[in-house]
Amino acid sequence: MDHFDIQPLARFVTGERASIRRPKEIASFSYDDAHEFHLDERSLRYYYPPTIGADLSKGFDSFQQLDDTADDHLDSLLKTIIDLESRTVRPTLDSFIEENHAHKLESRHAQHPQVPRAGTASQDLMSFWGYKFETLALIPATWAETSRDYIESREELVVNNHAQYCSIVRTGIGQSRLVLGGEVDALWDAKPSRADDSINWVELKTAATPLSDRDVLKYERKLLKFWIQSFLLGVPRIIVGFRSKDGILQSLEELETSQIPRLVKQRGKGTWDGNICIDFTASFLDWLKSTIVGEGVWQIRKREKATVIEVLRIEASGHANILSPDFLTWRSRSGQGQVS
Predict the structure, then answer these.
(1) Residues with Cβ < 8 Å from 313, sequence gap 6 or more?
(2) How many CA atoms lie within 13 A of 206 on its CB side?
(3) In 189-318, at which residue ranges do the beta strands (DSSP E only) sit?
(4) Are 202 and 237 in contact (CB under 8 A)?
(5) b/e code 92-127 from CB counts within 10 Å (16+ = b)
(6) Nearest to 133 by CA among 45, 236, 29, 258
(7) Rg (Cα) of the chain, in Å, rounded?
(8) 3 state SS of 287
(9) Taking burial as the number of CB atoms within 10 A of a residue's CB, which of 126, 181, 184, 248 is the most buried?
(10) Rounded to whole angstroms, how far apart are CA atoms 293 and 110?
(11) What is the mean pLDDT of residues 203-216?
């Protein structure tokens, strides 16, 4: 077993910052309202401001929630890469990392106690508030192409979280080149005609309206998650819907993703530093590439409260069902080499 030391963080504070390669979308796919996969943009949505004062709990009893307990591995991503590589000369990537599905489900269960504290909403209801906010803030086409009736009736729509638009981007941190896939919520205007131009994506988030210093600290820590998610996918704008403890939408805040670290440094409590995050990631990825060599399946893990990240080979060969048979067949037929 190998390990990467997280502490001391001071060693990631260097005079020379790690370089960042601007994320560029190279492919995309959609899940429809039945969560069926499609190699197109049918689930692309557009942002239109929601009505302040809306009740985010409305429609909870009719919520059409996606059952994501089954482990789909990277199947949809791999289908999209097959399609991409069939139209390009070189392979897109040769190493793959996926989240441990069982661990994700265990963590979710631990965060959702059966009985909420007195005076607080259940975790299930608070999760619904996020999806309701998305329903209130999205339209299926551009402003000019969407009817006033649709815009004004969004509070009555059934909330369904099956549909997703997923963007696949090529990016880089330090010496490492990465291909990442993730869901994006909406477009601010329209996709540019030039493929090299940035896309005005919008990420939608909800948070409790801060009422105390403790609330401000909690929100600042949330901003770290908001920033990382949007920064890595190249999402330039985040819209935060602030809500009351009862789930009433009270206000909106528009954040530029690139300015969040500066905002935290100047106005916040200093709980995190964006430069340290970037330099840490660059160092870790360099170490990871030098550690994971050859065939097999490797596990990357960090135990709770541990000060190291551990990497261990759990299978000497094979792919542990992470890579689909169709993808392995494609790589074999196309002669694009080994994957791990």
Answers:
(1) 296, 297, 298, 299
(2) 24
(3) 201-208, 237-243, 249-256, 297-301, 308-315
(4) yes
(5) beeebeeeeeeeeeeeeeeeeeeeeeeeebeeebbb
(6) 45
(7) 21
(8) helix
(9) 184
(10) 34
(11) 96
CA angle 298, 303, 304 (to 5 degrees): 155
| pLDDT at residue 1, as a whole number | 85
Q: 2 and 273 in contact (C-beta within 8 Å)?
A: no
Q: How far apart are CA 64 and CA 218, in angstroms?
A: 30
Tokens representing residue 277 in the block: 């995050």
- Amino acid type, 321: N
Half-sphere exposure of 243 (CA within 13 A, CB side): 24
Q: What is the pLDDT of residue 108?
A: 54
- Single out the residue of 46, 80, 30, 25 nearest to residue 194, CA to CA: 25
Q: CA 21, CA 267: separation in Å to the nearest integer?
A: 28
Contact 210, 219 (CB under 8 A): yes
Give the C-alpha separation, 238 to 201, whole Å: 9
Query: pLDDT-based confidence at 195, cuts 50/70/90?
Result: confident
With a CB cutoff of 8 Å and minimum separation 6, the contacts of 103 are: none
Q: Which pLDDT value is given to residue 162?
A: 96
- DSSP label of 340: -
pLDDT tens track for 137-189? 999 999 999 999 999 999 999 999 999 999 999 999 999 999 999 999 999 99
pTM to 2 decimal places: 0.90
Element (H, E) at 169: strand 164-173
Beta bridge partners of 241: 206, 252
